[in-house]
């Protein structure tokens, strides 16, 4: 749903009973692509039938934007209305939610509206801050700091524990239907659940997970964020050591028992690297040392880049593919620069296509496959397709990949799911028939191998 910079119309269904919101002039939301703070605004708009035009901004050029110059905070998202500009995402979400009374996004009573505001504030102060401090280093938005990350995990865990207790006997945060409270808190948790919350971490909060999956699978939410695929493991910032095992909820209390008091040598110990405040014990320090040594070993493809460099630059190809005027032009350029010695082309097909039942489950399978290949981001490019019919046993999952080296072992080592696919290497020099097939996999829109396209995921 969220794409590259430019303008897009989210939907067309103005149906507001608020005379202050125009039904003839679309509201304009200025934001950057993928901004989680815009999710709640767009989801609320879908629930209330408010027509919003989204203008994606390039934040690198935000100082030149007239809209942002008029915003007191100079930040996105900003909503342009017939009466003027609104800023701050929660204020904009409230404005949209209050556009209609009959949808009850603000609760069914005056007291409920207060509860909705309570959870919105809870999201802003208890969820968003630790969530962004944990996720943003993975995106490269913030420098990685191990101590900050551990503190963020603990703080977010405390917030999730509060939510888990509240949701133990409830389907929604307020009342018996979706409100802006659910939309706001779930929006703040989309990236943590997709990127950094491992199965072990999120299993500590089962009621939150059940509630989260209920909210993000509502049609209005999926229209904005697409399918939210839960993380298979905690993704780490580039250069960071692997994540350690998640301690149990009560593990923090052991801290006092394991901290021996030292008398005179205390000051000398301060000169040594002390364990983070949230962790303690010699066992943990030893584990950290082992993990750091393990992380220090270079990836085999990084060694290949150094010892057998290729003139083909993967990043340049990905930019060419994304920005070319036409796919034909992109493919013409690809065949000019393709290095068949340093890279190889592969077709893959899922071995259990006959067992695929529901399309949304197949989409989750393919999205998870692409996500779990992230380790090869610098060395691979590929398109995964779902073709056929939206019916049991009628769906086909297949793909075409460009990978560093001449073996499929790298993708199988990086992504355990790759073992469930049959990999067929394209012979070199690449024949005209295979070139045509590669182009079909990378450039098709409506059909592939004679079958209608149901969905496609591009790894780049």
Question: Would you give an account of this structure?
Answer:
- The radius of gyration is 25 Å and the shape is globular.
- It is built from 18 helices and eleven strands.
- The strands form two sheets. A six-stranded antiparallel sheet has the order 9-6-8-7-11-10. The chain has a five-stranded mixed sheet with strand order 1-3-2-4-5.
- Mean pLDDT is 82; it is low at 1-16 and 250-296.
- Helix 1 crosses helix 6 (180-196) and helix 5 (146-167) packs across helix 8 (206-216).
- The chain is an alpha+beta fold.
- A hairpin with a 6-residue loop joins strand 7 (380-388) and strand 8 (395-404).
- The chain has helices at 36-48, 66-70, 89-97, 110-139, 146-167, 180-196, 199-202, 206-216, 219-225, 254-257, 266-271, 282-296, 300-307, 314-323, 327-337, 359-371, 409-414, 432-443, and strands at 6-9, 27-31, 52-56, 78-81, 84-87, 343-350, 380-388, 395-404, 421-425, 447-448, 451-459.
Gist?
44% of the residues lie in helices and 14% in strands.
Helix share, percent: 40-55%
How are helices and strands ordered from N to C? EEHEHEEHHHHHHHHHHHHHEHEEHEHEE
Structural class category? alpha+beta
Q: Quaternary arrangement of the chains shown?
A: single chain
DSSP E strands, number: 11
Biggest β-sheet: count, sense, barrel? 6 strands, antiparallel
- Estimated share of beta-strand residues: 5-15%
The rough form would be described as globular
- Number of separate helices: 18
| Amino-to-carboxy terminus distance | 17 Å
């Amino acid at each position: 749903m969220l794409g590259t910079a430019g303008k897009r119309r989210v939907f067309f269904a103005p149906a507001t009973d608020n005379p202050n919101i125009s039904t003839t002039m679309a509201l304009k939301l200025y934001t950057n692509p993928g901004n989680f703070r815009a999710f709640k605004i767009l989801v609320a708009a879908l629930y209330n039938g408010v027509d919003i035009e989204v203008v994606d901004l390039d934040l690198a050029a935000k100082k030149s934007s007239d809209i942002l110059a008029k915003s007191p905070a100079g930040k996105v998202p900003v909503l342009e209305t017939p009466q003027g500009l609104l800023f701050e995402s929660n204020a904009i979400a409230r404005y949209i939610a209050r556009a209609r009374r009959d949808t009850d996004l603000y609760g069914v009573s005056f007291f409920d509206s207060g509860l909705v505001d309570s959870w919105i504030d809870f999201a802003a102060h208890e969820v968003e801050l630790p969530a962004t401090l944990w996720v943003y280093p993975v995106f490269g938005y913030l420098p990685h700091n191990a101590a900050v990350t551990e503190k963020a995990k603990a703080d977010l865990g405390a917030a999730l524990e509060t939510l888990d207790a509240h949701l133990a006997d409830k389907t929604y945060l307020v009342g018996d239907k979706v409100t802006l409270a659910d939309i706001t808190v779930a929006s703040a948790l989309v990236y943590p659940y997709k990127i950094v919350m491992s199965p072990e971490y999120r299993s500590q909060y089962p009621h939150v997970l059940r509630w989260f999956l209920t909210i993000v699978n509502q049609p209005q939410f999926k229209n904005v964020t697409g399918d939210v695929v839960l993380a298979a493991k905690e993704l780490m910032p580039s250069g960071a050591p692997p994540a350690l095992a998640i301690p149990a909820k009560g593990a923090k209390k052991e801290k006092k028992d394991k901290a021996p008091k030292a008398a005179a040598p205390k000051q000398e110990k301060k000169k040594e690297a002390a364990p983070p405040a949230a962790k303690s014990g010699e066992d943990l320090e030893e584990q950290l040392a082992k993990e750091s040594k393990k992380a220090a070993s270079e990836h085999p493809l990084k060694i290949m880049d150094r010892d057998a460099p290729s003139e083909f630059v993967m990043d340049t190809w990905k930019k060419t593919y994304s920005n070319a005027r036409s796919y034909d032009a992109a493919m013409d350029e690809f065949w000019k620069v393709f290095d068949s010695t340093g890279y190889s082309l592969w077709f893959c097909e899922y071995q259990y296509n006959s067992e695929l039942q529901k399309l949304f489950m197949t989409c989750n399978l393919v999205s998870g496959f692409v996500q779990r290949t992230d380790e090869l981001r610098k060395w691979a490019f590929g398109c995964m397709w779902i073709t056929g019919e939206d019916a049991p046993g009628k769906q086909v999952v297949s793909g075409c990949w460009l990978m560093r080296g001449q073996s499929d072992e790298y993708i199988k080592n990086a992504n355990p799911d790759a073992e469930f696919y049959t990999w067929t290497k394209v012979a070199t020099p690449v024949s005209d028939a295979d070139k045509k097939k590669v182009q079909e996999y990378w450039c098709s829109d409506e059909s592939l191998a004679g079958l209608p396209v149901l969905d496609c995921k591009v790894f780049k």
